[in-house]
Design goal:
Two copies of one chain form a homodimer. Chain A is of the alpha/beta class. Chain A contains nine helices and 14 strands. At the A-B interface, strand 9, helix 4, strand 10, strand 11 and helix 7 of A face strand 9, helix 4, strand 10, strand 11 and helix 7 of B.
Chain lengths: 348, 348
């Protein structure tokens, strides 16, 4: 196999850079690669497999020969550019949220609903980081004992707000430790040594867009309207890794031991659960890992059919870049994503 | 009134120092004060009302003339010393947890169950910081619409682990920012730029002691066995202020507007809730304040009788020192705490 012509739109930001890294590490069959930026780019060069590649401004004509285009940009840019890329016959894998609820775009987590890729029409959406780690961890349980309700509290790192947020948190921490004043830019308030219950814009119902999206995305991925989900999303002063305290009500009782046994064999999941030696998932330790880590699995003492657990994953890697590459890999394996027919042959 | 002979046991640690500050600020009627330490003290002096007072080792005979003794030490020291202090006729106000579940010791949050003080036998217990802020915020709602179930996720600051933890977090943050290695002592793992789902020792059921205690204490304070409570307690890299994401199921539906109206008039509570301008409680801002702050009050979209809210309070102040002083003040006001009879007159 010769490989695929790949483009990464948003190659200069955190997730784009992590996509580059995952493609390299997975020895993804790349015939050619374009690193694109939504803005004008003045010739900055980035590495791919030890080659220096100039970042170019993403323009529709650049997708002509592209087979697979990873998009990690803002929703409005995706909304404009992704359909143009797909029109050329490229398969777009987009994590911007622009197509989350579009009936013509499947929303895919390969461990959960790979078969939804089959009906893609050129664009496949990758969900929010928090949705991905939650459904990867809960799906193996949901398959054997359907979930009725989820109450979720998140502890989300700053990296999912982009590189400016990483810098803001680091600089603030330095200034605060020196006893100096800080001035927030990316976030509404100080994030260093503080926690902020605000991720995404606020909606009329008092939830944030992020809180509502996790619920909507999870139901869409699971193809059900029958799971009630209430989330509180909170930003914490952590660079990488999103943590979640999850309270789950199942259709019937399930013991922690049963759950551990099921999760121990689940794709993409690692169980870290030995309280006797303080062994549980932590964002600091999960940083850079491919897995969704689950621990503190225990009976919900407030509900007969409930379990409580603690889920952690690297939001940039498993929560974004890796999921996008896994979509491409799974699609290739099952022939839902391939080398594109030339436009000429398509038009014949 | 001449005032009371007061002792503070544990005067050198964070909560003891905060009790000193609250007594000064409230102009508590102090006739004399003793600052005591559970360990041998080599003459260190601390200020009270601009006077330098030598810290002495806490010994039973020192309580002879004490009317009110605030205890903020470990549970085993309280278990040994507090009954001896109470035997002299002093009223002990203890936050160690040693007497939480003792049927002869009332567990009191003055905004919630002041009347339990009436039957004290020399010792009154003050609950854990997380319990205090939760019940102060929820009690006004519980009174009008009895609570059935609470799912709680906490975001707890390091100060409730004592001054060594404050230092550990600060030093770790400095070292990590310099790219150097850290070695945890107070906590099992790194706390700077990380979150740890471990507060208190782990029990056989997978919960920690802290998680179980919040549930037990809340039910005891509310005098009911009919509230199911499941907590996940998490340490976050914040110096002062505990935050809570709280999902509450009431006996019947209650709207966010009704809840806000009730809480706006509640003792000890401040509602900070205007999402349009990112106005909500934060630990950084709550630090040093007497109030329990409540925000992000919204309908629980996963339950018809549910509300979700975000509660923040200064764990050292409202969560410990202030509650202890409020117990003394309320007790004095209602004549359940007073200047002690001399032992001679008691023995007559």
């Amino acid at each position: 196999m010769e490989g695929f012509n790949v483009a990464i739109v948003g190659a200069t930001d955190i997730v784009g850079q992590e996509i580059v890294k995952v493609l390299e590490q997975h020895k993804f069959p790349v015939a050619s690669i374009q690193l694109l930026s939504p803005q004008y780019s003045s010739g900055v060069k980035l590495l791919f497999n030890h080659q220096r590649i100039e970042v170019k401004e993403a323009k529709p004509e650049l997708f002509r020969d592209v087979d697979i285009a990873f998009f990690s940009v803002s929703a409005d840019i995706s909304r404009r550019l992704a359909p143009l890329a797909a029109e050329t016959g490229a398969v777009v894998i987009d994590d911007s949220g622009a197509f989350d609820m579009s009936s013509t775009v499947p929303l895919v987590v390969p461990e959960v609903n790979p078969e939804d890729m089959e009906w893609h029409k050129g664009i496949i959406a990758s969900p929010r980081c928090s949705t991905i780690e939650m459904v990867v961890a809960l799906h193996p349980l949901h398959k054997v004992n359907p979930i009725k309700r989820i109450v979720l509290s998140t502890y989300e790192s700053v990296s999912s707000s982009g590189s400016a947020a990483l810098k803001e948190m680091t600089n603030q921490a330095r200034l605060v430790l020196e006893g100096r004043r800080i001035c927030p830019h990316v976030y509404s308030h100080q994030i260093a040594f503080n926690v902020l219950p605000e991720i995404g814009v606020f909606l009329d119902n008092g939830y944030t867009r992020e809180e509502q999206r996790i619920a909507e995305q999870a139901r869409r991925i699971w193809h059900t309207e029958n799971i009630a989900i209430s989330a509180t999303c909170v930003r914490v002063p952590v660079w990488f890794g999103h943590s979640q305290a999850v309270t789950v009500e199942f259709g019937s009782p399930i013991t922690p031991d049963e759950a551990k046994k099921i999760l121990a064999q689940a794709a993409g999941v690692r169980v870290l659960d030995d309280p006797t030696v303080s062994f549980y998932p932590q964002p600091w330790a999960a940083s850079g890992s491919d897995h969704v880590f689950v621990g503190r699995i225990r009976k919900d003492v407030s509900h007969p059919n409930g379990l409580v657990m603690w889920i952690v994953a690297d939001n940039v890697r498993k929560g974004a870049a890796l999921n996008a590459v896994q979509i491409a890999e799974t699609g290739i394996e099952r022939d839902w994503v391939g080398v594109k027919q030339s436009l000429a042959s398509l038009n014949e």
